[in-house]
Design goal:
The structure is a single chain. By secondary structure, the chain is α+β, with helices and mostly antiparallel strands. It folds into 2 domains: 5-64, 3-Layer(bba) Sandwich (FAD/NAD(P)-binding domain); 77-191, Enolase-like, domain 1, CATH 3.30.390.30. The chain is built from 8 helices and 5 strands. It has helices spanning 9-12, 48-64, 92-98, 112-116, 145-157, 162-166, 177-190, 192-195; strands at residues 77-79, 84-89, 101-107, 123-129, 135-142. Strands 1-2-5-4-3 form a 5-stranded antiparallel beta sheet, sandwiched between helices. The N and C termini lie far apart (53 Å).
Length: 196
């Protein structure tokens, strides 16, 4: 529940939803057309990068009029727990609802950097569309996963097919190498003749 009661939004014509979050439209305009809201108060993606972007959009629209609309964004999320976890895009189950998927999964005990650092607990799972090679989602648990998922988010936002991602020669040994190995395993399922 959002703690917005003391804002007295109703006095200005603003409304909240049943959980107390401020209602906004695609321009982050509240139900009071002259008031814009951004960040956690909207109940949207309650993460710092998204709140910063929302703040920019809300401020731009407040000054220039409703000219900038929220765009569909790739939004990686994660937490610096022990072990870390992070994700971007669709879960495997959600992806299977609309796509024929391939899944490249790699355990942390299979890659050089994680073994060198003694951080062998975890996995990386990359989900792609079998027909197009489009990367649909990435889920990682283990050391430095938040950073690994950032690379997957860039690949998704740039519409980089899993085949192309698997061919990028990254520095070795790195934690991000686990993502490349997962991409290779997914690409191998799309084009088994290449994997041999």
């Amino acid at each position: 529940m959002a703690d917005t009661a003391e804002l007295n939004l109703a006095a200005a014509g603003g409304e909240t939803d049943s959980r107390g979050y401020v209602r906004v439209d695609g321009y982050l305009r509240t139900t009071a057309p002259h008031i814009f809201a951004a960040g956690d108060i909207t109940g949207r993606l309650m993460l710092v990068p998204q709140a910063i972007e929302d703040g920019f959009i809300a401020a731009t629209n407040a000054v220039r009029g409703a000219t900038t609309k929220l765009a569909e964004q790739v939004s990686p999320i994660g937490s610096f727990t022990d072990p870390e976890y992070a994700q971007v895009g669709l879960t495997e189950a959600k992806a299977r609802e609309a796509h024929d998927v391939v899944v490249g999964r790699v355990s942390f005990d299979e890659t050089a950097r994680t073994i060198i650092d003694g951080q062998t607990t975890g996995f990386c799972k990359l989900i792609a569309d079998r027909a197009t090679g489009a990367i649909l989602g990435c889920h990682v648990v283990g050391e430095r996963t938040v950073e690994i998922v950032q690379v997957a988010a860039i690949a998704i936002a740039g519409r980089l097919p899993v085949d192309d991602l698997s061919k990028i020669p990254l520095s070795f040994p790195t934690y991000t190498g686990i993502l490349m190995r997962a991409a290779y395993r997914a690409a191998e399922q799309i084009h088994p003749e290449v994997g041999g």
